Amino acid sequence: GAVVSQHPSRVICKSGTSVKIECRSLDFQATTMFWYRQFPKQSLMLMATSNEGSKATYEQGVEKDKFLINHASLTLSTLTVTSAHPEDSSFYICSARAPTSGGGTQYFGPGTRLTVL
Amino acid sequence: KQEVTQIPAALSVPEGENLVLNCSFTDSAIYNLQWFRQDPGKGLTSLLLIQSSQREQTSGRLNASLDKSSGRSTLYIAASQPGDSATYLCAPPQGAQKLVFGQGTRLTINP
């Protein structure tokens, strides 16, 4: 099956710093990637939809200036958490939509655990 | 707006039992539905994608059914094993691309 990677898997940073998370589709090209956030014992909440070569579409309540998304190529999308604060600590997961074979299955990365001190 | 409910929230059974996990959704105008498993602290693994034109989809010991008209999907796990312990999530789409997740069913299979 299709493989999606994320880097780093864990990151600890100080309050006020910025953190960049990478999401890569390893064996397929993804015109659309998605970024989710998951708090402990809760389900995934979509943050934004990232389309290659265009601006991301953010869900209601997600600050676009705080969570910067770049999708510069068909295999890479990045999420930058700017001026991170402890309340941004969460599990961030990306997914990539495979080509239409299979009906548009989304494949998920392994996630990045962000801890802001 | 799509809303998803999964029942039960948690399930603990002995090894070998056959299980049914339930998912209900409010917007039946969907073109497919995915089932995923999530292990603690990990990402999601896609288990099955069932198209709206299908009523069932099978992969090994897993069988997913979809009844669009009633807004329901079920995941059937046959002959459960301890390795099946995980949280199972169903995700119908909202619109063309977005997936909406339920809270999941946390499954524990006891040896």
Q: Could you walk me through the main structural features you see in this protein, from its secondary elements to its overall organization?
A:
The complex is a heterodimer of chains A (117) and B (111). With 117 residues, chain A is mostly beta strands. Chain A has no helices and 11 strands. In chain A, strands 2, 4, 5, 6, 9, 10 and 11 form a 7-stranded mixed β-sheet that branches. Chain A has a 4-stranded antiparallel β-sheet with strand order 1-3-8-7, with no helix packed on it. The relative contact order of chain A is 0.33. The mean pLDDT of chain A is 91. Chain B is mainly β. A 5-stranded antiparallel β-sheet of chain B has the order 1-3-8-7-6, with no helix packed on it. The model of chain B has no long low-confidence stretch (mean pLDDT 93). The chains are: A mainly beta (117), B mainly beta (111). At the A-B interface, strand 5, strand 9 and strand 10 of A face strand 4, strand 5 and strand 11 of B.
Rg result of chain A = 14 Å
Distance between the termini of chain B: 41 Å
Number of helices of chain A: 0
Strand order of the biggest β-sheet of chain B:
1-3-8-7-6
Span between termini of chain A: 37 Å
